[in-house]
Amino acid sequence: MSQAFRDLLKKVGSGQHTSEVLTRQEAAEAAQLMLSGEATPAQIGAFMIAHRIKRPKSIELAGFLDAYAQLGPTLQPITADYPALVFGLPYDGRSRTAPAQPLVSLMLAASGCPVVLHGGNRMPTKYGLPLVDIWQAIGIDWTDLPLTAIQAIFEETHLGYLHLPDHFSAAQSLVPYREEIGKRPPQATLELMWCPYAGDCQVIVGYVHPPTEGLAQGTLSAIGVPNFTTVKGLEGSSDLPRARAAIIGIHTPSGIERLVLHARDYDLGTQSETPLETEAEYLSTLRDTLNGKPTHLQAIALWNGGFYLWHSGITPSLSEGIAAARELLQGDRLTQHIQVIQQAIAQHRSA
Fold it and tell me: Glycosyl transferase family domain: which residues (predicted)?
């Protein structure tokens, strides 16, 4: 048993009226003790559920991210025409709506904007479709690659994916607790804000519940991330909805710009979101979309791709971003870029 962790657990788990907010330093120590395995399983599980009930504060999440920065992987800066976009997505995937994110990442990377993604395998408690499975279905396997290979692939292709089991085994060791406690722990919120890139970038934080946006603002400001964007997206992802208003917060050192966008204003609206009917059907349709065939995924690709092409600075307006996304889907640049990524992975896997 860790006596130091026991003292931290007492602070967060002593009840509604007597529990205390950890300082940033204490939160960092708690995360380090969990990630290192010095805290016992009983202590870790108790901390996760107690902290979930108490609700984490921004200063505590900042401390957790300090531990991630110290113990976790970080991609080093690369030369590019645009700041990188680091997407924070729920690790437990999607189960109700069709993801647009892989199409968005390919559009950005093929256009010269670096993209950093991170996640794990199928994960409790939702067990939704994870990013790594989607990439594998289109012929890009990010697993079983060392961090040095990911860095080189990122430099060559402007796309990098950090896979929790391969690149952050300490964080992966905490995943089973999600199933055992039956709830998402505060670490699930942390993952939306984690920035494992040391260069000029903008963090994209997806969320469902409005308080999460406030947590992100306080947390990222505390750790010195100057530019980040919050998106009230589909299933907590960065995917913009089409059936309702897309609510976006652009956070810079000079303040917050609030965008409320409607897909219907660009002839891309719908009465309901594109469903994830079956994973096999979605993956097959995704491949058809990449090969230029007309599919029901085109509209979400145009809406999301258009927004992020504009937001990254590649196009000067949203309308032009949508036009650029349409051109990318109709041409062969995305399939060509997939081949470039495949070749880079093959080269560094065999090195």
Answer: 105-330
Secondary structure letter of residue 206 according to DSSP: E
Work out the angle at residue 36's Cα, subtended by the Cα atoms of residues 34 and 41, and round it to the nearest 5 degrees: 45
CA distances, 133 to each of 86, 108, 336 (Å): 19, 20, 20
Residue 26: which domain range?
A: 3-71
Amino acid letter for position 91: Y
Domain boundary among 49, 71, 93: 71
Predicted confidence (pLDDT) per residue in 267-293, tens digit: 999 999 999 989 999 999 999 999 999
The answer to whether residues 60 and 142 belong to one domain is no
Q: Indicate if 92 and 235 belong to the same structural domain.
A: yes
pLDDT for 36: 95
Integer Cα distance of 266 and 264 in angstroms: 5
Counted domains in the chain: 2
φ, ψ for residue 46, nearest 5 deg:
-65, -40
pTM reported for the whole predicted model: 0.97
| Residue 62 in domain | yes
